[in-house]
Amino acid sequence: MATEDERSRGRMNDSDYDVIQRNTPYLREQLIGKDIVDIMFAKHIINRDQVVEVDKQMKKSRPEGIRVLLGFLMDSGGVNAMEPFIECLNDAGFKHVADKLKRDRQVTADAKYVD
C-alpha cells in the first residue's frame, strides 16, 4: 500500500514548475549540487535512486547534475515541492537563490490575478 508521501509525489504544480523552468539557467549557475542534494534527500524531496543518478551526472559536470536534480524536483518532487525546496536552499546556504525564487513565485502569483 502506498504511503501518504508516495501518493503526494508527482509533478510540481504548474505555477511553481514555471518558476523553476524560467530560473533553470540561473539555478544551474548558482547551485553546488552536493550541498543541496543531501538536504533534499534528508527532506524526502528526492529518493535514494535519484541521489545516485544526480551524483553520477555531477561527475560529468555540475550544471548537468543540477539539470537532472531540477528535473526530479519538477517531475516527481510532489505538487507542493517548492516550499521544501526553498527551505533546502536556505539550509544549504543559498539564501539569495531562495529569495529570488520566492520573488519570482510571487510575481507569477500576482500575474494570475491580473489575467
Structure characterization notes:
The chain is an all-alpha fold and 115 residues long. It is 78% helix and 0% strand. It contains 7 helices and no strands. It has helices at 4-8, 14-30, 33-42, 48-60, 62-76, 82-91, 95-114. It starts with a helix and ends with a helix. The model has no long low-confidence stretch (mean pLDDT 88). Residues 12-104 form the CARD domain.
How does the SSE layout of this entry go?
Elements: H1 4-8, H2 14-30, H3 33-42, H4 48-60, H5 62-76, H6 82-91, H7 95-114
Helix pairs in contact: 2-5, 2-7, 3-4, 4-5, 6-7
Give descriptors for this structure.
mainly alpha; 78% helix; globular; DEATH-like_dom_sf; Death Domain, Fas; 0% strand; CARD; CARD domain-containing protein; 7 helices
Concise overview:
78% of the residues lie in helices and 0% in strands. The protein is mostly helical and 115 residues long.
Query: DSSP strand (E) fraction?
Result: under 5%
**Overall number of domains:** 1
Total DSSP E strands: 0
Shape: globular
Can you identify the CATH class? Mainly Alpha
The H-and-E topology, N to C, reads as: HHHHHHH
Approximate helicity band: over 70%
Oligomeric category: single chain
CATH superfamily annotation: Death Domain, Fas
CATH fold label: Death Domain, Fas
Q: Roughly what is the average pLDDT, rounded to an integer?
A: 88
CATH architecture: Orthogonal Bundle
Structural class: mainly alpha
Largest sheet: none
Number of helices: 7
Low-confidence stretches: none
Measured distance between first and last alpha carbons: 41 Å
Cα-atom radius of gyration: 14 Å
